[in-house]
């Protein structure tokens, strides 16, 4: 065989090999999954459609309806006896943190590296997905941008986990959330906070976070002797919004909260001491509440010395504030702030304990489910991609054996989880 003919033959077999492998990849990529949904919930409307078929292709919902034809060769998942809905969202998590107030943040910085924090965060993210949360926003306290790495590792497909939106380092007035550190120690809180004490410093801090991979911005306004002015909040909002990002502020009430609302932040986080007047102002300005109402058992674990007040009374106050916010009609996205581990429960299960608070406040199950799905997606500005079951949306789908619109506690028994079209928890 002449030399050039040999090359030609080799080239041909190589092309053939490439074509065959490309075809195989295309078949795998184009794999269609069909879910037979006995009861499909639309959380935006609070309605149920019976006997629906959801077709899923390339991680997205391709078609939904009662008459959808299931293509030959499709994998069929039978959820005819279940209630099917979009995956849950938690707008306020700290997946890399295990915290209690008696040891404070300071010891965590000294005793845990960013790598250790990332490992905990990854483990927590996986637990969270198993109970049905397919999206979480991590609002800081993640060491040196550890949540950015967790998010990226999940996106690369190295691990199965929820969509993680991260805020990067928390922007605060001088001192982070530490108290009484001696000058000899230096500003070691910069491990997970950025000191920003003027309009310009706030702008720079937002830009710094965006540069290092944040997808949302978080400020803490009133956890020290200083709090942010309307102008400082406005600067953060302008910078964040210019980058298409949401800006959220930890604030409890009073004038600091008024500044947050008037400065145009997207949300108040916690807001435990908001008066009816401030809640009314939030409604007028369209400020979201991510209320993080702690169940009593969590408060007891988080704050055994009762520095925040007696757990029972504190929980009752938080229930009352949730009740008033719902009555007044403030926009609400579900957020838990679960930051410490209770014995015998993983973080995902703990997040569902917050349902007790929504029940205790008399929020109807349909409104709670909306705050956990479609409304949370709107707040996080991802509603065009996630948060509902419709054509073109990411296939983040969960199922429960009972109807959560009748009893929201049904969400504690999530029996199936699909994340971006892949089954993360097979049907029991
Ligand atoms: Zn928090």
Please tag this protein with its features.
single chain; 428 residues; alpha/beta; seven-stranded mixed sheet; four-stranded parallel sheet; 21% strand; binds zinc ion
Architecture overview:
The protein is an alpha/beta fold and 428 residues long. The protein is 37% helix and 21% strand. The chain contains 14 helices and 16 strands. It has helices at residues 3-29, 104-111, 114-130, 146-155, 199-211, 230-242, 254-262, 276-285, 296-302, 311-328, 347-353, 355-360, 365-372, 374-379, and strands spanning 32-42, 47-57, 60-65, 75-86, 88-93, 133-138, 163-166, 170-172, 193-195, 217-220, 247-251, 267-270, 288-290, 397-400, 416-419, 422-425. The strands form 4 sheets. The chain has a 7-stranded mixed sheet, with no helix packed on it. A 4-stranded parallel sheet has the order 10-11-12-13. A hairpin with a 2-residue loop joins strand 2 (47-57) and strand 3 (60-65). Helix 3 crosses helix 4 and helix 6 (230-242) crosses helix 7 (254-262).
